[in-house]
């Protein structure tokens, strides 16, 4: 199952395919029938790659890919509007060992909805490539690393500037007092 390049966007329903990136943000294409293209702003939009999402487990985290594999092996899914007890019983079968206190009914509905969106796509049956990702994903990770590096450097420069200001201010006062005394 190849979930590389498929992302969930905070504040937007459904799933999107990462198509590319421009100055403003990430270019995403909806996986639904409309194929709506969206530009998600870099500064205020959170993207979560389905490949990286995990489900809280009692002992260890359960990868979403593993949950999807068990759902496809089971063959059927309950309706996302089903009762919480029905969803909980189904989730106990497809994700045994999940933490029932941390995994809410809304999380289960979202995962089942995601599965229903991607089950008919060709990428659902392909194997995950062993490469680092699509060019857009590689660029995404590189830019994120560069932004983190820039933020750390900016934070360091700001703290150095404060230190310089504090150091230089007393030196000016000292020189002014020495001139007055002369």
TrEMBL record:
Q: Which residues form a coiled coil?
A: none
Feature: compositional bias, Basic and acidic residues = 139-151
Region entry Disordered: which residue ranges? 126-182
Every DUF5606 domain range: 3-50
A Pfam family the protein falls into = DUF5606
Q: Where is the composition biased (Low complexity)?
A: 153-182
Which ranges carry the DUF6852 domain? 53-118
Q: What is this protein called?
A: DUF5606 domain-containing protein
């Amino acid at each position: 199952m190849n979930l590389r390049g498929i992302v969930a966007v905070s504040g937007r329903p459904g799933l999107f395919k990462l198509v590319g990136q421009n100055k403003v943000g990430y270019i995403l294409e909806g996986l639904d029938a409309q194929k709506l293209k969206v530009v998600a702003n870099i500064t205020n939009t959170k993207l979560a790659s389905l490949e990286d999402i995990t489900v809280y487990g009692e002992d260890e985290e359960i990868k979403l890919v593993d949950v999807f594999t068990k759902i496809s092996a089971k063959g059927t899914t309950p309706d996302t509007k089903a009762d919480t007890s029905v969803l909980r019983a189904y989730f106990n079968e497809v994700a045994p060992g999940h933490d029932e206190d941390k995994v809410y009914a809304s999380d289960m509905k979202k995962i089942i909805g995601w599965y229903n969106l991607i089950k008919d796509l060709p990428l659902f049956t392909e194997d995950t490539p062993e490469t680092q990702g699509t060019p857009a994903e590689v660029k995404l990770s590189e830019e994120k690393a560069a932004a983190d590096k820039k933020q750390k450097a900016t934070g360091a420069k700001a703290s150095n500037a404060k230190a310089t200001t504090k150091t230089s201010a007393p030196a000016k006062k000292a020189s002014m007092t020495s001139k007055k005394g002369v």
